[in-house]
């Protein structure tokens, strides 16, 4: 057996695997909702975001120890990275914006994964429940218009509503 294999703490692997599975399970209902709504990110993306964020925190925690500043930098990087992924889910159409709820849900799912990785399970559970509830129940209160309308723009980029005042 290789030397590095003998140094592996199998109990740690089991603990970390269980933690990653918790992040995965908490993200599944959110991904399922987005999949059912046929959004740009869904059943695969949301659990992957949660597990990845949890994994980054776990890996950093194992190497950084009690250095809160360094851990803060890791979490800051996660926030930025997930924001970038969420930005890819937003589509600006000619007169509307689509995907903002999916983008915000991706960001929240990153927070779920980070919270689980930090051992803040109660925070992760509350974020998961509130995100799922928001995606499930609040669309019923939204007007029939599927997405937000943007003001029409003239070719020079000016708002056409304000052109009437010229």
Automatic annotation (TrEMBL):
<feature type="transmembrane region" description="Helical">
    <location>
        <begin position="41"/>
        <end position="59"/>
    </location>
</feature>
<keyword id="KW-0812">Transmembrane</keyword>
<dbReference type="InterPro" id="IPR003416">
    <property type="entry name" value="MgtC/SapB/SrpB/YhiD_fam"/>
</dbReference>
<dbReference type="GO" id="GO:0005886">
    <property type="term" value="C:plasma membrane"/>
</dbReference>
<keyword id="KW-1133">Transmembrane helix</keyword>
<feature type="transmembrane region" description="Helical">
    <location>
        <begin position="71"/>
        <end position="91"/>
    </location>
</feature>
<protein>
    <recommendedName>
        <fullName>Protein MgtC</fullName>
    </recommendedName>
</protein>
<feature type="compositionally biased region" description="Basic and acidic residues">
    <location>
        <begin position="144"/>
        <end position="156"/>
    </location>
</feature>
<feature type="transmembrane region" description="Helical">
    <location>
        <begin position="13"/>
        <end position="32"/>
    </location>
</feature>
<keyword id="KW-0997">Cell inner membrane</keyword>
<dbReference type="InterPro" id="IPR049177">
    <property type="entry name" value="MgtC_SapB_SrpB_YhiD_N"/>
</dbReference>
<feature type="region of interest" description="Disordered">
    <location>
        <begin position="144"/>
        <end position="166"/>
    </location>
</feature>
<keyword id="KW-0472">Membrane</keyword>
<comment type="similarity">
    <text>Belongs to the MgtC/SapB family.</text>
</comment>
<dbReference type="Pfam" id="PF02308">
    <property type="entry name" value="MgtC"/>
</dbReference>
<feature type="transmembrane region" description="Helical">
    <location>
        <begin position="103"/>
        <end position="130"/>
    </location>
</feature>
<keyword id="KW-1003">Cell membrane</keyword>
<feature type="domain" description="MgtC/SapB/SrpB/YhiD N-terminal">
    <location>
        <begin position="20"/>
        <end position="141"/>
    </location>
</feature>
